[in-house]
């Protein structure tokens, strides 16, 4: 295609164009004055091309003298071979000998320099996001983000999915977070909610017979933000009819295989490994374990070994039905890990912070000598069984915790991550995709003394667990497992979904268990249960967290750098200063009075 204002972009000219007359448009990235000879780096989204302006071309030289960084210019001239070649950029062998120069727009002095190794604070980068986005790395992140949109659309099209847009102004969805609400001007006192996800709509689309739905959509959750969470984020949302969990896995694995191949040229292995929720909690103390951690570092239950222990802490733990468990940090074959007193103290502090009295350890030195503050309380048999359980070798260390089962496991999980980070045991170049299946259906909220759905309340129990829904025994209800799955990549939950309930009687039982009266259920989800009366197909789906996936593809830890206009940790946008106050007139129209904060 021929465009009128420029013949080429700043990233495409090479020696094959030598001799051609070209016109480039872009931003002045750098100006060098070599004794009167002017060299300008002209930048656009595609790259940088060097312009050469010699003082004997008086008219354009005058213009060049006035140029400053980030002025927008148009330059026309002949492509010539460059004297000093820059092998680092694709256009590094040529330059433009400028004959015509025009300033299209000027720029004020910048609040920060546009450089790859940016030194500006995050606040400044977010306030002047358009300048931050001019940096090559940011442009690259957004380009990868865009490439993935195309891959996703193309992939799902091939498998017969229909893309459907679902409303942004909607009724509250049941993802369990706080809603962002939008007041209705026409119906005073009534509110729309922004979608926490299109969950209810995509299920209704299955009732509508659409069979295979996909949407790359925005979701909004008004949660207290943690460092790397955004109040609005993007999902690849999927729903399918007449399928099993296996079908969802196959479609998902194909998608990731294609994205990884096309973006990183990496062949990831499918099918992904699978673990049940119980397995990962027991082995890694987390439902999103990072399996790139090389050192074995898995949790082992030790309750049996210490069943008859005389050591008070173990004895008490066993009597009160608590858990004794540990992890072993292996020091072979590299023998590079040095576990000093300070390291052990550090880890002790770490577990104390989450409420443990202390951390028990057993260290085996290079000669096989064992040191441990509890050594004198243990029998030889106990020590031997412990060493055997962990297949201990000289140089290894075991950390042990006792207490509430969940707390022990999750804390050992956190300790595992910390040790891996401290001793650099994570294979940063790897991609470990795993499915976690069979999540608990329900979780007990101790504060409110009631059950709630672990996922949203439309998640189906496993067929062989449905009969347990009639029980009112807490343990029995806690033991119910759902056809609910997460996709985990390198320790991040990047996808989550389930097979849905499509039978009204099962749905009713679950509403009852989570304490949702018939009236409340009607009020909240009546439209969905109503729809389900008219021939709901068995269906299920999944949603993938787009921002995190892109961040991982870009090799980044923060999702902010892959979102064009992200919010801060306090959910503000520094560039356009939102949220912001509105006119009294607007409030009046909405029938809203603002109470002064006390
Ligand atoms: N709506 C769910 C979520 O956003 C995903 C799903 O169940 O498909 O987490």
Radius of gyration: 30 Å
The number of E-state strands comes to 22
| Largest beta-sheet characterization | 8 strands, mixed
CATH topology-level fold name of one domain: BirA Bifunctional Protein, domain 2
Q: What's the CATH architecture name of one domain? A: 2-Layer Sandwich
Count the helices. How many?
A: 16
Strand percentage lies at 15-25%
Bound compounds: aspartic acid
In spatial order, strands of the major sheet run 6-9-10-22-21-20-17-11
Backbone shape: globular
Structural class: alpha+beta
Low-confidence region ranges:
none
| Helix share bin | 25-40%
Corresponding CATH superfamily of one domain: Bira Bifunctional Protein, Domain 2
Instruction: Provide mean pLDDT, rounded.
Output: 94
CATH class of one domain: Alpha Beta
Distance between the termini: 62 Å
How would you explain this protein's 3D organization?
The chain is an alpha+beta fold and 598 residues long. Among the domains are: 15-105, Nucleic acid-binding proteins (OB fold (Dihydrolipoamide Acetyltransferase, E2P)), CATH 2.40.50.140; 142-274 and 485-500 and 527-563, BirA Bifunctional Protein, domain 2 (2-Layer Sandwich), CATH 3.30.930.10; 293-422, 2-Layer Sandwich (Gyrase A, domain 2), CATH 3.30.1360.30. Helix content is 29%, strand content 23%. It has 16 helices and 22 strands. It has helices spanning 58-65, 122-127, 129-132, 136-158, 199-207, 245-264, 277-284, 312-319, 341-353, 380-389, 405-422, 474-478, 504-513, 518-531, 546-553, 584-590; strands at residues 21-34, 37-44, 47-53, 72-81, 94-105, 162-163, 181-183, 191-193, 212-220, 232-241, 273-276, 299-301, 323-329, 360-364, 370-371, 397-403, 433-437, 442-445, 450-453, 484-489, 492-499, 539-545. It has an eight-stranded mixed beta sheet, with helices on both faces. Helix 4 crosses helix 15 (546-553). The chain is globular and about 95 Å long. Aspartic acid binds at residues 175, 197, 199, 496-498, 541-543.
């Amino acid at each position: 295609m021929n465009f009128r204002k420029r013949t080429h972009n700043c990233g495409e000219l090479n020696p094959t164009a030598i001799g051609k007359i070209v016109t480039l448009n872009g931003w002045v990235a750098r100006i060098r004055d070599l004794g009167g000879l002017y060299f300008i780096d002209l930048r656009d989204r595609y790259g940088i091309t060097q312009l050469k302006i010699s003082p004997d071309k008086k008219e354009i030289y005058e213009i060049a003298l006035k140029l400053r960084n980030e002025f927008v210019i148009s330059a026309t001239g002949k492509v010539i071979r460059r004297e000093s070649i820059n092998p680092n950029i694709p256009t590094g062998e040529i330059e433009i000998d400028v004959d015509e120069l025009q300033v299209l727009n000027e720029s004020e002095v910048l609040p920060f320099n546009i450089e790859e190794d940016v030194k500006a604070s995050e606040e400044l980068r977010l306030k002047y996001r358009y300048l931050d986005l001019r940096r090559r790395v940011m442009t690259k992140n957004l380009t990868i983000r865009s490439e993935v949109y195309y891959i996703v659309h193309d992939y799902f099209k091939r498998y017969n999915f229909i893309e459907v847009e679902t409303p942004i102004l909607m009724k509250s969805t049941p993802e369990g977070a706080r809603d962002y609400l939008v007041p209705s001007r026409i119906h005073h006192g009534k509110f729309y909610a922004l979608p926490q996800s299109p969950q209810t709509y995509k299920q209704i689309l299955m009732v509508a017979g659409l069979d295979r739905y996909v949407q790359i959509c925005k979701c909004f959750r008004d949660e207290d933000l943690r460092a790397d969470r955004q109040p609005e984020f993007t999902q690849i949302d999927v729903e399918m009819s007449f399928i099993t969990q296996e079908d969802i896995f196959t479609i998902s694995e194909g998608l990731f295989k294609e994205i990884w191949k096309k973006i990183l040229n990496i062949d990831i292995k499918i099918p992904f490994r699978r673990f049940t929720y119980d397995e990962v909690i027991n082995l890694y103390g987390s439902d999103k374990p990072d399996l790139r951690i090389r050192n074995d570092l898995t949790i082992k239950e030790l309750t049996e070994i210490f069943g008859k222990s005389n050591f008070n802490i173990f004895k008490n733990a066993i009597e009160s039905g608590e858990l004794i468990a540990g992890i072993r940090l292996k020091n072979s074959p590299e023998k590079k890990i040095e576990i000093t007193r300070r390291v052990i103290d550090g880890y002790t502090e770490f577990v104390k912070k989450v409420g443990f009295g202390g951390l028990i350890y057993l260290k085996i030195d290079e000669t096989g000598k064992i040191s441990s503050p509890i050594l004198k309380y243990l029998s030889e048999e106990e020590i031997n069984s412990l060493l055997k359980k962990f297949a201990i070798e000289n140089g290894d260390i075991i950390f042990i915790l006792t207490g509430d089962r969940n707390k022990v496991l999750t804390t050992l999980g956190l300790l595992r991550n910390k040790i891996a980070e401290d001793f650099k045991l994570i294979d940063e170049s790897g991609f470990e995709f795993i499915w976690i299946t069979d999540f608990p259906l329900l979780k007990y909220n101790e504060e409110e003394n009631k059950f709630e759905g672990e996922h949203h309340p439309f998640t189906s129990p496993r067929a062989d667990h449905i009969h347990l829904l009639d029980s009112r025994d807490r343990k029995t209800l806690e033991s119910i497992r759902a056809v609910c799955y997460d996709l985990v990549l390198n320790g991040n939950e990047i996808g989550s979904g389930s097979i849905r309930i499509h039978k009204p009687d099962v749905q009713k039982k679950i509403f009852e268990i989570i304490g949702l009266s018939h009236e409340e259920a009607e009020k909240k989800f009546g439209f969905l249960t109503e729809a389900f009366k008219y021939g709901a197909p068995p269906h299920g789906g999944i949603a993938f967290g787009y921002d995190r996936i892109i961040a991982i593809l870009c090799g980044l830890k923060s999702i902010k750098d892959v979102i064009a206009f992200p919010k801060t940790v306090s959910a503000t946008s520094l560039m356009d200063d939102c949220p912001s106050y509105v006119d009294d007139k607007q409030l009046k129209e909405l029938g809203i009075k603002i109470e002064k904060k006390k």
